[in-house]
Design brief:
The protein contains eleven helices and six strands. With about 230 residues, the protein is of the alpha+beta class. The chain folds into two domains: about 150 residues, no CATH class; about 70 residues, no CATH class. A hairpin with a 5-residue loop joins strand 4 and strand 5. About 30% of the residues are buried.
């Protein structure tokens, strides 16, 4: 494991995809002006991030967007140590195409819910930031040769995710997120508020990586607050 991989792991995060890039991608330069050759998609999967993040100053300070602020801080710390350039899925413009990058890296598939489906972690992952590097050996070979090229797992599935939502917010064509948020706001004791989205929990892929209840409730609370203002 490389030093970069080790420090990413110590944050409870994972390298979820590796993408070769060039000047045509129009990405920022690295410190010193060199051109990026590789983009590393960094994110959380399963439960490993939660103990680190929930012990952070950002989580405890009561200010808005604690996870984004924590992600930015730790990404910038990695940038200082390793001479990489961080990019974020928040705070644009520019609005970086993280899901498009993940598909190019063969790190995810489209799910019936419209969410990115990882072949190992299922729907229980998220991209927190990306790191641009000129070092194509910044991560070990087993990362780039991971299960990223697996076939889409939804083909032979009966898709229980589409029927699990208590208000039918997932139609197979769109996500009625306002309907979802309004229901959760009106039903604070519903299991979706405490354990995470019932539709996500119905997916059989990556069941062992379900978020713990505290993590699921944190994300749900943020989602409801943002979408019912």
């Amino acid at each position: 494991m490389s030093d970069l991989q080790q420090q990413v792991a110590e944050l409870g995060l994972k390298i979820l995809g590796v993408l070769e890039v060039d000047e045509e991608d129009r990405l920022p330069a690295l410190p010193g002006g060199s051109v990026a050759r590789q983009l590393l998609l960094i994110g959380n999967a399963g439960q490993e991030m939660w103990p680190v993040f929930s012990a952070s100053a950002e989580y405890a300070d009561g200010e808005d967007n604690p996870l984004d602020r924590w992600s930015q801080r730790v990404a910038e710390q990695l940038a200082d140590v390793f001479g990489v350039t961080p990019l974020f899925p928040f705070g644009g413009p520019p609005h970086w195409p993280f899901v498009t990058w993940a598909k190019r890296a063969r790190a995810c598939h489209s799910s019936p819910l419209g969410m990115a489906l990882h072949p190992r972690y299922g729907l229980w992952h998220a991209y927190r930031f990306a790191l641009l590097t000129s070092d194509t050996e910044a991560v070990s070979a087993e990362v780039t040769a991971d299960a990223f090229a697996s076939a889409a797992p939804c083909g032979g599935c009966e898709k229980p995710c589409l029927s699990a939502c208590p208000v039918g917010a997932f139609t197979g064509q769109e996500y009625l997120y306002k309907t979802c948020a309004a229901f959760l706001a009106a039903e604070p004791d519903h299991p979706c508020n405490h354990y995470g989205c019932a539709a996500r929990r119905a997916c059989p892929v990556g069941e062992e990586y379900l978020y713990p209840a505290a993590q699921a409730a944190f994300h749900t609370e943020v989602f409801v607050r943002v979408n019912t203002d």
